[in-house]
Design a protein that fits this description.
80% helix, mainly alpha, globular
Length: 259
């Protein structure tokens, strides 16, 4: 690999850098195509290379420059009666998720991340649907889970995807608008909390610079794919990419591949 690239990733092998680049591209494709899922793809794979704490800082640095303007463009279409209570409870639960991330050891966190993501994909792919308009207790509960998962692994979109993507009354355009708006506002909030906890560092920012370009390319391709795909293809591609990423990241395979 070029010396400039390796200099930006101190202490990481060429194979590790390749994993980060591939995870970023796949995550960008899913994010552009579905409106969510970057962290669900990137986090388990990046955790194999740099560990969950550093991977969380990388996710924020890579996604923030894209999430904020995208959220601004989707805010008017979002259904704020659903988004606002979710944001409130997610913010309150976020510090607890960060505490778990720091307290749990690296391998345990990798197992938790992979299992949570695999369970979410299984639930979404099972055909489960939520009927009716969600009440305040349900929205608040989903918000708590989102904040907790966001602090642990920046996968706060996972419970939201189950909640909104699975809702029969929401089409994919409404789902994308809700998710994009939520991510933009929560990015500002989580950034302040991550910085205060020492997770956002200059090292993470420098590592994120080349990954931002890859992420942007993936998002561009994913967005164009979204415009062409039908509803069934839209869901199947998202489920498949997230499922494979979580499966590959399981610590179960460490001995097999020599990690």
């Amino acid at each position: 690999m070029p010396a400039l690239i390796t200099d930006l990733f101190p202490g990481i092998s060429s194979a590790g850098i390749s994993v980060l680049l591939a995870a970023t591209l796949l995550g960008g494709l899913v994010r552009g195509f579905t409106g969510f899922g970057f962290a669900m793809v990137f986090m388990p794979l990046a955790s194999m290379v740099v560990g969950p704490v550093a991977a969380l800082g990388l996710i924020w640095c890579i996604d923030a420059p894209f999430a904020l303007p995208i959220a601004a463009g989707n805010a008017r279409q979002a259904e704020w009666r659903e988004v606002a209570p979710l944001l409130l409870t997610a913010t309150l639960a976020l510090p607890a998720g960060i505490w778990l991330l720091i307290w749990l050891d690296r391998e345990t966190m990798r197992w938790i991340l992979a299992v949570l993501i695999l369970a979410a994909v299984a639930l979404m792919a099972s055909g489960w649907r939520y009927h009716g308009r969600p009440g305040i207790p349900l929205s608040l509960g989903v918000g708590v889970l989102s904040g907790l998962f966001n602090g642990m692994a920046s996968i706060g979109g996972m419970p939201l995807a189950v909640f909104w993507l699975g809702a029969q009354r929401n089409d994919r355009h409404q789902t994308r608008a809700n998710l994009q708006t939520f991510f933009g506002v929560s990015t500002l909030i989580s950034g302040a909390i991550l910085w205060r906890n020492g997770i956002l560092t200059m090292t993470a920012l420098l590592m994120a610079l080349p990954l931002m370009a890859v992420y942007g390319a993936g998002m561009w391709a994913g967005t164009h794919g979204f415009r062409l795909a039908n509803e069934i293809t839209f869901r199947r591609i998202a489920y498949a990419v997230i499922f494979v990423s979580a499966l590959v990241s399981l610590p179960l395979w460490d001995a097999v591949v020599g990690r």
